[in-house]
Amino acid sequence: MVVERGRALAVALAMSAPGCGGGGRAESPAPPPEAAPAPAEPTLIVARQPRDRFRSFSFGPEPAVPGAERIRVEEPQLPDASGAPRWHTVVTSLDDAGAPRWRVDLPQWGQTTVGERVVAVHGERSLVIIDVATGAATEHPHDAPHPWPRAVVVGDRVVAASATGDGAGVIAGYDRGVRRWSRPLPVEHGGDLAIVDDLVFVQTQGGVLYALALDTGEPRWDLSLGDDLQLRADGARLRVATDDEVLEVDPRGVPPPIERAVITGEVGTVACGEVGAVVVAAGDTRTRPDASGAFAITVEARGELRVWIPGSVAQDASIALTGRGHYEVGALFADLCDYD
User: Fold this and answer.
1) Residue 276: what are its φ and ψ, rounded to 5°?
2) Pairing of strands 137-141, 126-131
3) Number of other CB atoms surrounding residue 116 within 10 Å
4) E strand or H helix at 280, and its extent?
């Protein structure tokens, strides 16, 4: 009888199990877990603060650089070999007692930027980088004849720039006194440079903010803000002052997608014709230059594009459109002569 009761209990339990008869209810299988949403890309501009364009603006004093109080910079006028006065930049490092540790006398005037490890003198003829620990100096002639006002220094890194005099510029990066890279810029620099993390920021006279890789100078992104800009590194963020706003920029952010781009340039010499007879083409888009030869064409912002003058046997230009908002092709020379 004990065995029979055990069998009856086992059958009863089996019949009441889910999915079986005896009143049990079938359960649907659990749904697979939902995939975690992809993390949102950080926003480039994280804050905006309005400002009055009719009032002067400044970010205030630069943050203090450790050890800068021991670097003395003087700009005396000293006689050269002929006895004529010449501006000098004299940089002196002082010890704890205020006595000179080393002294570097440069026979040129320049803007001096003092960093924790190096001092950069952006002179009229060259960039001079001085090691704070030893006073050893390395000199680098400018890539273009017109140096921009000042270099920017972070750690052992120095970034400086110069202008060609025809509307373009060159920017270069240095590490421990050695030049690591140099890149052309399509338009002239507007004044400020800034370094935040692994990016260097440069602004142009047309109000375009460029972000370049600090190690290589490779372009990362650019953003057209349409004003003269002031830049200031602020921890892990970049602060940008336009005519109407002060922006807080996250360097890791992604600029808004650009669907259209503007290509600018100019028509130079026209053989056998006048500027007014020239048509400039970029892909399927065509335009005429103005009386000075300047032109601007709006195109799709992706792919490769040929810019040329139809009917001309002169050179053309090829551009890789990488998502930026502005490209400069420089001068195109038209030859409209009939050689038949």
Assistant:
1) -65, -15
2) antiparallel
3) 14
4) strand 280-282
Q: Domain residues of the chain, as ranges?
A: 45-249, 260-335
| b/e sequence 276-311, b meaning 16+ C-beta within 10 Å | eebbbbbbeeeeebeeebebebebebeeebebbbee
DSSP 181-197: EEEEESS-EEEEEEEET
Two tokens, residue 41: 């890309």
Number of CB atoms found within 10 A of residue 104's CB: 16
Q: How many CB atoms lie within 10 A of CB 242?
A: 19
CATH architecture of the region 45-249: 7 Propeller (2.130)
Place of tokens 């972000």: 211
The Cβ of residue 82 has, within 10 Å, a number of other Cβ atoms equal to: 6
Exposure string over 62-81, b if 16+ CB within 10 A, otherwise e: eeeeeeeeebeeeeeeeeee
HSE-CB at 302 with a 13 A cutoff on CA atoms is 3
Place of tokens 């650009």: 258
- The CATH number for 260-335, chosen from 2.60.40.10, 2.60.40.1120, 1.20.120.1730, 3.90.190.10, is 2.60.40.1120
- What residues are paired with 285 via a beta bridge? 282
Q: Quick check: helix, strand or coil at residue 12?
A: helix
pLDDT in tens, 235-288: 899 999 988 899 999 988 887 776 788 898 888 878 888 888 889 988 889 999
Residue 287 has what pLDDT? 92
Q: The tokens 């650089």 sit on which residue?
A: 65
DSSP character at residue 146: E
Tokens of 134: 């030893």
Task: Return the residue matching tokens 């006073």.
Answer: 135
**In 3-state terms, what secondary structure has residue 5?**
helix
Stretch 127-137: mean pLDDT: 96
- Kindly report the number of other CB atoms within 10 A of residue 184's CB atom: 13
| More confident position, 167 or 65 | 65
Within 84-229, strands assigned E span 85-87, 89-94, 100-106, 110-114, 118-123, 126-131, 137-141, 146-147, 152-154, 157-163, 169-175, 178-185, 189-196, 199-204, 208-213, 219-224
